[in-house]
Amino acid sequence: GNFTNHVLKESIQLDGPSLPNNSTTTIMFRYLNQSKLEENKDYLIYSHQNEAIYGNNKKVSRYKPKWSHHREKRLPQVIIIGAKKCGTGALQEILRLHPQIVSPREEVHFFERYQQYYLGLDWYRKQMPYSYKNQLTLEKTPKYFITPEVPERIYAMNASIKLILIVRDPAERVISDYFHVRASHPNILPWNKTFKEEILNTKGEVNISSYIVVPSLYAVHISRWLNVFQREQIIVVDGDKLITDPLSQITKVESFLSLPHLITSKNLFYSQEKGFYCMQYTSGYKKCLGKNKGRPHPNIDPQVMSKLRRFLEPFNKHFYTLVGYNFSWPNS
Ligand code: A3P
Question: Which cysteine-cysteine pairs are annotated as disulfide bonds in the entry (predicted)?
Fold first, then answer.
């Protein structure tokens, strides 16, 4: 239909050239396949209730607004740096519900892989989705958290970048990592090693250099980041709360990013079948994370768990001091 432009300007937030009041604009509405819409947040305007209206760029490209040249691929202003198996995927997916956040589907592994890093920042930028200038580009690669070279490299790109670290009970994280590596990368851990054999050495002590123990030494890793970045540049999200009360953590992140609180309880629902919160889009389309997120964990020998928790305790205490928050993770 035809809309006078002062009405249009009132009701739609436009990131483009200003519209003269005394003219009219034609808006064409088309029906688009819901699941495709959610996957392709390429084309987006806001309704006056601040709800996002998504479009699939492939289907609407003929109707691209004139100001679409304002969409660019930009370097990330926000990075989820880790920690692996703490809910980084869920956090990224839920944040993608926000109309002012765009994020690539894949982990980019730019700053920690030599062969990617030396392709340069322009290559990195090209891995990002298109965004309007009022949107933030968010990247997520959990390996960054534990890779010593990464903080300096990110700082060299953007000294005032915002960083998101999500952590959960580090002993639970070790279990999650074990079952993840077994399922997804069976060649990394010797296939016949049990959890106990993987984390304990022949003397029965926790193996500090085990591939699945190292990422849980949060204090060791965060120290390196705090040597480079201001504490205020890093938000620490509680991954255990992200499971039980995701909105509490998402609201914190929206505030940290100075974004309006547009992700609401309407966007999240608990699925009995999945056993986790899932997402509901404005269109009504629903989506849970895939099978590789939220795997059932077989029971672990309580004595092994207790040993692991006692080993992690001093690292945890140091971490609480460094970030200024006591997570009270179990210590035996
Ligand atoms: P498990 O699969 O071991 O349960 P990451 O994305 O960093 O790899 O983290 C995966 C973990 O995210 C899962 O570990 C799961 O516990 C947690 N998680 C948090 N919120 C979730 C959600 N809404 N759906 C699925 N998994 C979620």
Answer: 278-288
Residue 85 annotated to the active site: yes
Residue 36 CA to ligand 1 center (angstroms) comes to 24
Q: Identify the CA nearest to 42 among candidates 25, 31, 56, 30.
A: 56
Task: Report the chain's terminal Cα–Cα distance, integer Å.
Answer: 66
Tokens in use for 330? 């179990």
DSSP annotation of 202: T
Specify the pLDDT at position 24: 60
Q: 71: which residues sit within 8 A by CB, 6+ positions away?
A: 130, 131, 132
For the entire predicted model, the pTM comes to 0.82
Structure tokens at 24: 């009219």
Give the pLDDT score at 54: 42
Contacts of 57 (CB under 8 A, 6+ apart): 40, 42, 43, 64
Closest residue CA from atom 1 of ligand 1: 294
> Ligand 1: which of 81, 85, 103, 237 to mutate, judged by most atoms within 8 Å of the beta carbon?
85
C-alpha 179/C-alpha 295 separation (Å) is 8
CA distance 88 to 86: 6
pLDDT of res. 152: 98
So what's the pLDDT on residue 154?
98
pLDDT score of 46: 35
Q: How many CB atoms lie within 10 A of CB 136?
A: 19
Q: What is the 3-state secondary structure of 116-174?
A: HHCCCHHHHHHCCCEECCCCEEEEECHHHHHCCCHHHHHHHHCCCCEEEEEECCHHHHH
Q: What is the pLDDT of residue 236?
A: 98
Cα of 89 vs centre of ligand 1, distance in Å, is 7
Spell out, as residue ranges, where the chain has pLDDT lower than 50: 1, 5-17, 39-66
Residues shown for the chain: 332
Q: Is 276 in the pocket of ligand 1 (CB under 6 A)?
A: yes
